[in-house]
């Protein structure tokens, strides 16, 4: 069974708009990570947020974590066509020893 | 070039045949992982290894085996392939499992089709 569930499954926006993707999970976690996957390629790590953190920024990325609601969001500001990819959240469960559990992903399409 | 390499890039395999997917990393990471990615299901962990000489089962280990004879290599073997093992397989690594939060580094994947 999957720990993380992303919402929406697919998102289509215009360049310059912001993109928000959400992730919900079921059990307590050590940390939550977001990864990006371009079509036909491997996953690339974007950002990691620990369970005692509420918000984290990296360039145009902003991640929030609400452990009381067991949810996280990834915001990409001022999107570009090059941001077109699938985005996955992955959770490291408490006691999971860095074995990540991935959600099904959000497919983002950014149109020029 | 530092990172993870996987071989082959893609393979078509007859059901019942044996197949080993290769994974090599040059980052001297202790932990390595094998995932499969199926449409609509994200990635699922097959097997993992926290350090050379040790391995463990992930979420979907049945039909697969792994070995970790040294730090760099982590081959995944399908003893007798079945069509349900058609998938894209990703190898990943991380520096020190269990020592705090760590990102994982992924290889480019192997696309396997079992007919």
Described by the principal axes of the CA atoms, the overall outline of chain A is globular
Mind describing the biggest β-sheet of chain B? 7 strands, mixed
Question: What average pLDDT do the residues of chain B reach?
Answer: 93
Strand content range of chain B: over 45%
Mean pLDDT of chain A: 92
Count of DSSP-assigned helices of chain B: 0
Along the chain, the helix and strand elements of chain B come as EEEEEEEEEEE
Descriptive overview:
- The complex is a heterodimer of chains A (112) and B (115).
- Chain A is mainly β and 112 residues long.
- Chain A has strands at residues 5-7, 10-14, 19-24, 29-37, 43-50, 55-58, 61-66, 71-76, 85-93, 100-102, 106-111.
- In chain A, the strands form two sheets. In chain A, strands 2, 4, 5, 9, 10 and 11 form a six-stranded mixed beta sheet that branches.
- Chain A is globular, with a radius of gyration of 13 Å.
- Chain A starts with a strand and ends with a strand.
- Chain B has 115 residues and is mainly β.
- The termini of chain B are far apart.
Can you describe this structure in just a few lines?
The complex is a heterodimer of chains A (112) and B (115). Chain A has 112 residues and is mostly beta strands.
List keywords for this structure.
heterodimer; A: 112 residues; mainly beta; six-stranded mixed sheet; five-stranded antiparallel sheet; 58% strand; B: 115 residues; seven-stranded mixed sheet; 11 strands; globular
């Amino acid at each position: 069974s999957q720990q993380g569930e992303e919402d929406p499954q697919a998102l289509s926006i215009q360049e310059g708009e912001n993109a928000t993707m959400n992730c919900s999970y079921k059990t307590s976690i050590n940390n939550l990570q977001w990864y990006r996957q371009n079509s036909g390629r491997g996953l690339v790590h974007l950002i990691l947020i620990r369970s005692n953190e509420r918000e984290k920024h990296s360039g145009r990325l902003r991640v929030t974590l609400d452990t009381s609601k067991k949810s996280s969001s990834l915001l990409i500001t001022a999107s570009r066509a090059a941001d077109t990819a699938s985005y996955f959240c992955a959770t490291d469960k408490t006691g999971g020893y860095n074995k990540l559990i991935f959600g099904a992903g959000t497919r983002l399409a950014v149109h020029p | 070039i530092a990172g993870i390499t996987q071989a082959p890039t893609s393979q078509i395999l007859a059901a019942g045949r044996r197949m080993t997917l290769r994974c090599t990393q040059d980052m001297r990471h202790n932990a390595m992982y094998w995932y499969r990615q199926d449409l609509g299901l994200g990635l699922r962990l097959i097997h993992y290894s926290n350090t050379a000489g040790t391995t463990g089962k992930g979420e979907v280990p049945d039909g697969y085996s792994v070995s970790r004879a040294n730090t760099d290599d982590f081959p995944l073997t399908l003893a007798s392939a079945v069509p349900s093992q058609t998938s894209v397989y990703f190898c990943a690594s991380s520096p020190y499992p269990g020592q705090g939060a760590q990102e994982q580094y992924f290889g480019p994947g192997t696309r396997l089709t079992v007919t």
